[in-house]
Amino acid sequence: MKPLLQAIKEKRFYLDGGMGSMLQAAGLPEGLLPDVWGMEHPAVVQEIHRAYLEAGCRLITTNTFGACPLKLAPYGVTPSQVMAAAVSNVRAAMDQAGVTDGYVCADIGPTGKLLRPYGDLDFEDAVGLFAETVRAAVQAGADGILIETMSDLYEMKAAVLAAKETCGLPILASLVFDESGKLLTGGSPQAAVALLEGLGVDVLGVNCGQGPRQMAPVFQSLWENASVPLLLQPNAGLPQSQGSETVYDLDGEDFVAEMMPLVSMATLLGGCCGTTPDHLRRLIEAAQGIPLPEITQKETLLISSYCQAVALDGNEPVVIGERINPTGKKKLQAALREGDMDYVLDEVLRQEEAGAHILDVNVGLPGVDEVVVLTKTVEAIQEVTGLPLQLDTSNPEAMEAALRRYNGKPLINSVNGKEESLQAILPLVKKYGGGLVCLALDEEGIPASVEGRLAIAEKIIHRAEEMGIPRRELLIDGLTMPVSAGGERAKVTLETIRRAKAELGVKTTLGISNVSFGLSKREQLNESFFTMALQQGLDGAIINPKSVAMMGAYRAYRALMGLDNLCQEYMEASASAAAPGPVQGQEMSLHQAIEKGLKETAVVQARVLADSGREILDIINGELIPALDQVSQAFEKGVLFLPQLLMSAEAAKGAFQVLKAYLPAEESGESPQILLATVKGDIHDIGKNIVKVLLESYRFRVLDLGKDVAPEVIVTAVREKQIPLVGLSALMTTTAPYMAETIRQLRAAGLPCKVVVGGAVITQEYADSIGADRYVSDAMESVHYAQEVLGVAGTKPVS
Q: Average pLDDT over the chain, rounded to whole?
């Protein structure tokens, strides 16, 4: 039989459909991990696999969605035991069905934890957990690895790296997007394509969370941006409650009707929650005759952060902020040596506000451990901004450390034509992904001629393509030289940029300001040279975005070249330039510190305000709460993402802890106002933990019962502590019925509490059907409902 990857190139493959809902129908007890139950009831699992095989599915996933060491530990079993049994069950079902052309895909789901800094699971610990499961899959004889239902690109990166470092099997990566087209942590489809293709997955796609119709816009975006085959596994519509059962609103016929517009874009098709062998049989019959999609190699270079992508498409130039570089900057040098990260982050935010699209990060200083400091700085920057970064170091060890922890796909600055550089940097690009800045110099130095620089560029391109790094990922740096040294240096650089783009088909980049080194009135030269470079096709301009002249030249070029429709951005920038803005070095207010997510600065400013004699409640209501409200409004408008929201919440909590010491002691025995719990059988508590952080930042008192909480425990806690508001979360279809049961028991006990529900498998219709008082689709809606039920203030007013 052909290897799976080869087979995928030749025909459309059909994965199976829902497993959890099928197991429930076959007798899976509510709340029990399906993976473990499947080990104990192999005949049941084999029967389900066989039904999908008989429907025509030939890529069967193992019953191992929860085979993470963290999830299996309470049951006393290991990933190796679970995976061996699961792969054996698929093979047995193939034998029973007489199928000889089927493949086994090891199914790997999320850990159920949010990674640091927003959660408590370290990135390397996550890699280790996934690696243990992948090793088990290899040992059991799986044909491929399916990493699915991931809502966080950072966790997905950990899982993909674990698979790459542990095995050579094909890697299929599938994400779950919400109704806004974003991941839980804010990632866009473009950002997902950038990261996953950079990491080298073989197939990427989307599953769960929604039906085909709701999933269509995200899948279309993946199709427009991806250069690898796509996978599509929607739910059978949206969940509803019928008595004690959770059902989905699309039968086989309706499911197929919604799938057909998407079939031509998908190489792998299947189903997720609520789909059955009948759904897949009907889909396979309907899709016969639809040709396999042609996978085209896109030419756009995508650079990304955890939430957004920046596209270098050869037409639209982008600004790369140069200010996080200690060369000639004494204050930044001191901040890096002293670990004063808030100074660095202030510079980051000012560049973002000035209009930078990407930020260069260089921390190279004598006496600084660049391996540690670069990684620490990158992680800190990603806590406060969603802009992609350019990692700038000549130290390969520091580059790899930062690349590994970077959340997204960065620009890598840089490689050059020296053999030592090529051997050190190209393997890092191949492993981790990244747009690569290629300096046109080698062991002989910087050629004086255009031809010499282009020859080095061609050498780098050839070596990169030999390693499987596409040409679209490369940016040639023509090397800006000071014109003060005489000659035609600027002319050579500009011609190198023009010809590299026209003749070599690559993107281009330049550090602009070096052209004026050693001369007075440098900005005049920089501005003119910048405009000339843009005219020659410059794609990535490394400049100071806080320079009014440089950004003015950039915006004027875009307006003149028809890149700024109706000159709207040009006029907006002109209007904002007329208004007074923040002054560099000016002390940041408490409001600003919370808005920017700068916890250390927020703590300092809270103490300053408290010591000034200002009324503490006035500080809370006049600074802290309005800042949180402003951030939450930006989040709800989609201009700020979950990680930034959480960092602002943490900054507010830090400030409140300072202010709390100045308030009279709270009454002893004060009861919690809100109870939070993930329902019985469900060990995924990411959403619940996010809600807790935000509620506490608004000063609500929260009792967190944790995960896998039985209805009886919740009822007892609500009765004993007289809690007025209960928040319930569920991620899995198999555990959603316990949400209904918990609400039923609360009502039967006559408790007057309100109940708010949420989670990946929960919808407004389902919430209504189980008697919840409110459904929320994100964490901020929970805060708003708490304010509605309990009042705006989370604590009793202090007289």
A: 91
